[in-house]
Structures are given as structure tokens and as C-alpha cells.
Amino acid sequence: MQTVFARPESLATVSTHYCPGCTHGIIHRLVGEILDELGVRERTVGIAPVGCAVLAYNYFNCDMIESSHGRATAVATGVKRARPDLCVFTYQGDGDLASIGMGETIHVANRGEKITVIFVNNAIYGMTGGQMAPTTLPGQVATTCPLGREVETAGWPIRMAELLASLRTPAYITRVAVHTPLHVAKAKQVVRKAFQHQLAGRCFSLIEFLSTCPTNWGMTPLEATRWLEANMIPYYPLGEYKTPE
Amino acid sequence: MAKKLMKGCEAIGEAAIQAGCRLFFGYPITPQNEIPEYMAARLPQVGGTFVQAESELAASNMIYGASAAGCRCLTSSSSPGISLMQEAISYMVGSELPAVIVNIMRAGPGLGGILPSQADYRQAVKGGGHGDYRVLVLCPSSVQEAADLVIDAFDLADRYRNPVLVLGDGLIGQMMEPVEFKPRPPVALPPKDWAANGCKGRKPNIINSLYLVPEVCEQVNHRIAARYQVWEEKETRHSGHNLDSKYDLLLVANGSVARVCQTAIDDLKASGVEVGLFRPISLYPFPIKALREAAARAKNVLVVELNMGQMRDDVDSFLQGRVPVHFYGRQGGMMAAPEEVIEQARAILAGRSN
Description:
A: Rossmann fold; B: Rossmann fold; 5-stranded mixed β-sheet; 19% strand; globular
């Protein structure tokens, strides 16, 4: 019998703790498939964040390092500068990358570290129970903005792909979504490109994934998918924001 | 290599190179800028890498990463910057990673001042960051000793899989003295088979300090604490001056101020007064047994520091009331002069001090 679908070798044979309808599982799988297809699992080091993906070190079947909150790209810098022959990726949420780790994020991109950042933007703090994120949309309700995000006091949500694309240092910066099979297929090509840029020693690469959080958005998975399509994509347009010259 | 006149900071940098360190991550702060500057010039000559980080938070997490990948690496800073590094230091202990961190102390609290101080003694020897942990703390009192201790620090960090802090006051970093790097026999160290550097031919390694199961987290705390017991047995270091004399007063001091005490003791000796000096080199683990032995022969102990008496508190508790413990300190970047120490010593010997 022909195998048409199997778990990538780069993913560990374990169940994850992610909520039903969350897209972390899809994003993990895309990274795992690409590490397999590029044949780099055995020379890859992944950096897990603090946030929903804190346990990612148990889910990827490659060497993993757990970072402190926001510092994943600093840790990745240390690994990559120590061992430029390794394939290094970070996996971070919006609180980790765009709030507490904003300094590290901008500077790792500006130094042009040859690493790949998987950035999962679900517009909320998931692990801590639904607080406002730097990417929470205007009017969106969270436990620390119970009446909805007020841009007068909280500012506007930060568009990380656009912000990082404004840096002069060459980079590959893309925003994708994974809420439909078509988007998943497109996103996989982007993940491949991002790792290829790293492996060729070409540039820093970052992929912003728009992701759902049915649990903390208070929606069913289907409602969450529709909400992402109707609200997140208009504010966070998909596409390539920067490609290396 | 012949003796060379070097600034303390430069000697520290060269010592790291001699120890096989090929990676430096740091952020500028006075009075230790000569360490990153030396490494920026020197590392490329030996195929190494220098990165100027965007902050001490980033620099310390870069050494977390480089160490996790199994490589020797160094960062250095001064007091306010070391406070920012405490996050990564705590994580490195929790993840059982070796690292060498140099703190060239300046005055505090807050922005304080840029002149020499020993105000970070307590932060250094009690752990410094969150969580229940210690780092091994080595304290030089000369440029030569700073260089030697940095080389030792790399071996100790690798042997125990724990950060080692080299704690120098600003004077140690800034003064110039002759220094020599003698060839050292290779030291046998455990293989870094735990490193996250690619899982070819083995199961994946995970570098982590998160233990959500309390029973497991408790075991980890015990495992880490067990090495402190070993340090107390094997890794204490101390030195002294005039300890073979018949002294009534014992001075206890570390770092540059111990040198001041030494001059004071020599002057006193010339006038027929015998005073001893006990100088801890490892501030954690503190050489408690040796201190007790030296103090047992004295009627009084005087602790001299460049802070408000942080080591005095420790000495007091180590001596458990067996000998009266006095204190003299300067703060804020002021250096104690030998005359001040002599005056304090004479007052105690004459029974004029409390």
C-alpha cells in the first residue's frame, strides 16, 4: 500500500497541548515538512519561546533550546555565530516577538543574522489567558482591554512585517495565513524559501503567520477562521514585504 | 609568552582567548569597555567572532545560545549591566549551561558612578537573579590574578555546567600591571554531549529550564544544589598576608582593597605591630574553614570593603560570634587609603573601636 500522508520525521511522535482550532499545529507541520524536504533535521537547532509554543521543544524532533521570554532571537544569534554551519530557527508568538522581544527582533533583523524566524500572530496572549497583545486589533476584546482595544491609549496594533521590511539590511520578510488549504499550500512554499535563504547564507528571514485563537477569542474554530479572514487580513495584508536584492 | 604590561580589562580579554574562547557578546558600559574593545580587535585574528549586542539582555542571551551550542564564550559588563544579565544567568543555571561572565564593578545604587566599587558582592554571592541558585564567584586582586582566574573560570564552568562570575572592582579592570600567560597543561573535562548542535547520530538534545511537574522541578533544584556542596569541598580559594606572624587583629578583604590592606599591614609591621590579612579569592564558595582557622588566632577581625559591609555580614555569620567583627568601608567610588586602614586597626588594637 502506498503511503500518501505521514508525520514528518522532523516532528516528534507526541500529542501537542494546542487547543482545537488553533493553527500552531499546521505551522509546526509546515516547518517539519520543510526541514525534512531540505534534509537538514540533523543539523537544525530550534529555539522555543515563552508563550503558547513554550513546549515546542517537545514537538520538533531536532535539537531544541528553550529561551526566556522575548530573547529567542538573541539565543539564536548565539547559536548561529557559534556554529554558522547549523540551520537555526526561532518559533515565537506576538507577545514574545513584538512586545517583550521587540528590541531583539529589530536588531536581529538589522544585523542580518542568517536565521529563520517563525512568527505566529494571533492578536492575543494565549498561554496567559487572553490578554491584549501588541497585535490585538482596534476594538478587539481581551482580558486587559475588556471594552476592546482603545488605540488612543494602547496605540495601534504593530505591523511587524512592514516594520521590519523598512530596515535597509537585506532580508526575506513575508506574511502568510493558514486558515484554508490554499493558504496552507502557499505558506509552505514561503517556509521553504525562508529556510533556503538561510541555508544559502543569503539573509535573515521572517515569516509572519496570521493565526487563530478560538479559545481566547471566544469563538468556535469556524467562527475564528471567518473572523481572521474578515478582520485580520484587512489590517495585516498578506504577501512578500521584502526579498533580498 | 614574556611578561607584558597590560590593563586589567585587556588581560581579561587575552585570558579568554588563551582559554580557547572564540566568541564574545557584549554591550558597552564603563569601566569595562576595554574588554569588548580588546575582543573586537583580537578575536578576528584567531578566527573568532565578536558581536556588539543591542543590550545586556541580548548579550547575555547570546552567550546562553552559544553555550547551548557547546562553545566557550564570554560576556562582560559592569554593575547596572550585570543586573540586566541576571535573567540569562538564572536561565543558564536552570539549563545547566557553562558560561563565564565578568563584572567590573562600579558604584551604585542606580546609575551610581563609574569609579571602583565592591557594591555587587551580595548580588554575586547570593545568586543574583530569580530562583534558588548560585554561581561560582572568583575575585582577583591583581591583573595577573584576573587573567589566571578567567582561564580557570572557563574550566570550572565546563566542569560543573554552571556559570562562573569573575568579580573585579573597577580598579582591577583599569590598572596596568605586568602579566604573563604561561602555557598550561590541558585539563580533562567532561564531553559536551548535552549540547544543542545538531542531532546527527543521536536523539535530539533539549536545553531547557522549564519543569512544570513540581516533583521534577524539585529534583532539578536538588541536582543543581548538589554541585554547590562539591564546590565547598573542592573549589574554595584564599590567600593571605602576614598570617604566619603572631597577630591580634585579622583583616578580611578582597579585590583591590586587599592590596591596600597589605600595604597597611607592612607599614604596621615596620612599627612593630603585627596584623594578618585573610583574602578570599572564591567569594562563593567562601573559604569558611580557612577563615575560621585564621580568625581563631585573632582577638578581633576587621573587614574592609568598598561597600556598606556586605561581606562583613557573611564573615560575621561564618564566625558565629567567636571573634568580634568590625567593619571599615568606603563607598561611591572612593578608595580606602592605607592610612585609613592603619587608623582603624590601631583603634581596634587600642580598644577604642566598637
